[in-house]
Write a structure and sequence with these properties.
single chain, Aldehyde Dehydrogenase, Chain A, domain 2, Aldehyde Dehydrogenase, Chain A, domain 1, alpha/beta, about 775 residues, 10-stranded mixed β-sheet, 28 helices, 6-stranded mixed β-sheet, globular
Length: about 775
């Protein structure tokens, strides 16, 4: 008989299987499910099986949703929404509290059902997922209670269409439904076809707590059902899933006016510096990648390890790898459960095989029967290897070494994704410096997979946009004070004339583009006659390319800090006021005076648009930091050539962005007059770049440009084209109707909200309470 010491070394212990009797009784009573629409379950239609991936057994049959089913659910949600939104916040809070309390009472039942349907170990669903589901409903009950005070003037968007993945079935449901309901929206949610059972159990909870009919509707099915929701009469789409599908949704919703939140794929860097606690970092790998079968979009699947400690790190990693138990998800001793579906298992194996064929070495990672794959990692993976860029979404990591911190950052950012990053260092200075440099929406320092309802979660770049969680996440389910649209003067036809074909006098009056802080001739030397009678430059694709390159080189502008940027904005206002009378004769005194005031307004905001320190779990300092996008494209209205230009450019640069601006098509002269003011106001070259010409042609080039991180488009008619063109790098596009730029609608916090993306940084803080551990869910 082995001794206790020997058992602790071998970790050989017997099974301890969670009882599934209550779940099996429930499934026996529910052999097949219809949809949950208008507070009741529909009769089952054409069904497909929901399969336990660990055993292959059919658990229940799920109805394949049709376009007609989706339409019925949306109609129910639309009918229920006004009454739900009209309830006092306290009334909505009580419903959310009741849901949280009921889930809390059924934690064991729901965790067993989740593990049977998804294949994840019971320890994860019981100890991490379901408690966090409860946390989200409690947290958002609080937001419902406080909504009127904390978001004055805001209101619900309407009906939200929500599509969730199979890796965290009930948790993703909570992330989406809780804030939507707190804000006064109603929802139509589609769970993943592989893992619909906990969503249907949640529907029963909605019935039990007496949630008004139509507030929550759940339609099951595959991708066709999801496409029907995207095409339906909803006001917002919230999607979590693959980047490929996210692109399709962006294209499908282009020009519809639907709000969009996309939480997409990731290939997150796991950076281990030479001063890291290697034992803790190895446990971080286990928590980030292997305990959840790698089926999490923010898993630190790219291990970047300092060359000097890589041999020691790998030795520890392989020793820990050999001790992990792969097996039955309901066994409390299981570390690694089943892959959700044979299709996903085969995808993991195919990518791994391609990586090995490209020169990588596979450590572990052997396939087993049913839907099991042993955890492992690929060594010697360079950025040219397919496994570097493809999201494996399984228990297989990659490992690459680096020599310097700069190289680590270069490798970390060598990805089109930007969802999460994990940094391991005993130096707070090193860790926070890396956190500031890595391009990702979430950064965990000396920890992994820490989530909380108060901490916004979401990505940058091709990992999507929008946030879920906390105050920032609530804003994605609210609309601000109503702005009365103003009709915009249609742009007139433009006929380009080469400078050489114009008379000498006209050549002297031909304007130049403003790129990189200098006036430049348009590429091709073309011009057109503006409404003022001046000949102005006729920009083209190459001019946009040059302007974007100049904007990219203006990175020091963001590094100046809010105070430095505020001084420059004040200086621009001062110099504009010195030329007030001169410019008033050309552009109107009211417009110039309003522009001066607007510069003062955003100068005031530049050092006051603060981040947040949010309360999550004890022992962590969680900062939510507004970061500039980088290069923002701005397409100005054809009206208000001077004031419209300033009203859009000022908030964007106040937040640290550099901009490429397409000014009023018919009369861009005001923009070039302002460029002269910029030149005398210490604005660094490249912060503002102006390319005049055909608005929609140039906007399409900006929208498609990979290095333009965000786009603002004033106008309705051309919105569909730019939104569809933005799918390449999935840049957020803010398209909005023209307005009265002289009034309150011409400025406000909404402009600043659209000028930043939020980064959530988790930093261990102080001594953790006893029993907390290093990983917090």
């Amino acid at each position: 008989m082995p001794t206790v010491s020997e058992i602790m070394q071998t970790m050989e212990y017997g099974p301890s299987v969670e009882d599934s009797g209550a779940v099996r009784d429930w499934l026996k009573a529910h052999p097949s499910f219809g949809h949950f629409i208008n507070g009741a379950f529909t009769p089952p239609g054409r069904t497909f099986p929901s399969v336990n991936p660990a055993t292959g057994e059919d658990l229940a049959r799920i109805t394949q949703g049709t376009a007609e089913d989706v339409e019925a659910a949306v109609k129910a949600a639309r009918k229920a929404q006004p009454k739900w939104a009209a309830l006092p916040g306290h009334a909505r809070a009580k419903f959310l509290y009741a849901i949280a309390r009921t889930i809390q009472k059924r934690e064991r039942f729901l965790s067993v059902l989740e593990s049977m349907d998804n294949g994840k170990p019971i320890r994860e669903s019981r100890d991490a997922d379901i408690p966090l589901v409860v946390r989200h409903f409690y947290h958002h009950a609080g937001w419902a209670e406080m909504l009127a005070d904390e978001f004055p003037g805001h209101s619900a968007i309407g009906v939200a269409g929500q599509i969730i993945p199979w890796n965290f079935p009930l948790l993703m449901l909570a992330w989406k439904i809780a804030p939507a309901l707190a804000a006064g929206n109603t929802v139509v949610l589609k769970p993943a076809e592989y893992t619909s059972l906990t969503a249907l159990a949640f529907a029963e909870i909605c019935q039990e707590v007496g949630l008004p009919k139509g507030v929550v509707n759940i339609v099951t099915g595959d991708g066709e059902t999801g496409a029907a929701i995207v095409a339906s009469d909803v006001d917002k789409i919230a999607f979590t899933g693959s980047t490929e599908v996210g692109r399709a949704i962006r294209a499908a919703t282009a020009g519809t006016g639907k709000r969009l939140t996309l939480e997409l794929g990731g290939k997150s860097p796991f950076i281990v510096m030479e001063d890291a606690d290697l034992d803790a970092a190895v446990e971080g790998v286990v928590d980030s990648i292997w305990f959840n079968q790698g089926q999490v979009c923010c898993a630190g699947s790219r291990l970047l390890v300092a060359e000097s400690v890589a041999p020691r790190f790998e030795a520890l990693l392989q020793r820990r790898l050999a001790m992990l138990r792969v097996g039955a998800p309901l066994d409390k001793s299981t570390d690694v459960g089943a892959i959700v579906h044979p299709v996903q298992k085969q995808r993991i194996l195919d990518i791994t095989a391609k990586a090995v064929a490209a020169g990588a070495d596979l450590i572990g990672g052997a396939p087993a029967e049913a839907c099991f794959i042993a955890p492992g990692y690929l060594r010697q993976v360079s950025p040219a290897n397919p496994a570097w860029s493809e999201e494996i979404f399984g228990p297989i990591a990659t490992l690459t070494t680096f020599r310097t911190a700069d190289e680590a950052i270069s490798l970390a950012n060598n990805s089109s994704y930007g969802l999460a990053a994990l940094i391991w260092s005993e130096s707070a200075t090193v860790a926070t410096d890396l956190a500031a440099s890595v391009k990702s929406g979430v950064v965990w320092i000396n920890g992994a997979n820490m989530f909380d309802a108060a901490a916004p979660f979401g990505g940058m770049r091709e990992s999507g946009y929008g946030r879920e969680g906390g105050r920032v996440g609530m804003l994605d389910y609210l609309t601000g004070p109503k702005v009365r649209p103003a009709s915009e003067k249609p742009a007139g036809p433009l006929t380009a004339a080469l400078d050489g074909a114009a008379s000498g006098a006209e050549i002297d009056r031909t304007g130049k583009l403003y790129i990189g802080g200098a006036q430049k001739r348009p590429d091709g030397g073309a011009s057109y006659r503006a409404a003022s009678g001046d000949l102005v430059p006729f920009g083209n694709r190459k001019d946009i390319r040059n302007a974007v390159e100049a904007a990219k080189k203006a990175g020091k502008w963001a590094a100046m800090g809010g105070h430095g940027r505020a001084q420059v904005l004040y200086f621009i206002a001062e110099n504009l006021s010195l030329r007030r009378d001169e410019l008033a004769k050309k552009h109107g005194g009211k417009a110039v005076d309003a522009a001066i005031q607007r510069l003062f307004y955003y100068a005031a905001w530049a050092d006051k648009f603060d981040g947040l320190n949010v309360q999550t779990k004890p022992g962590y300092l969680v900062n939510v930091i507004p970061e500039a996008f980088g290069t923002v494209g701005i397409v100005c209205p054809n009206d208000a050539p001077l004031l419209g230009f300033i009203s859009l450019v000022a908030p964007a640069i106040a937040m640290g962005n550099s901009v490429v601006v397409i000014p009023a098509q018919d009369d861009p002269v005001a923009a070039f007059d302002l460029a002269q003011v910029f030149d005398t106001s210490d604005l660094p070259g490249g912060v503002v770049n102006i390319v005049s010409g055909p608005k929609d042609e140039l906007a399409a080039v900006l929208a498609a440009h990979e290095d333009v991180a965000a786009l603002w488009y004033c106008g309705i008619d051309g919105a569909a084209a730019v939104e569809k063109a933005s799918t390449g790098n999935l840049k957020p596009v803010w398209s909005f109707a023209n307005r009265d730029w002289t009034g309150a609608a011409g400025q406000g916090r909404a402009f600043l909200d659209h000028a930043v993306q939020w980064k959530t940084v988790w930093l261990p803080y102080g001594a953790l309470p006893a029993g907390t551990g290093s990983i917090v869910y």
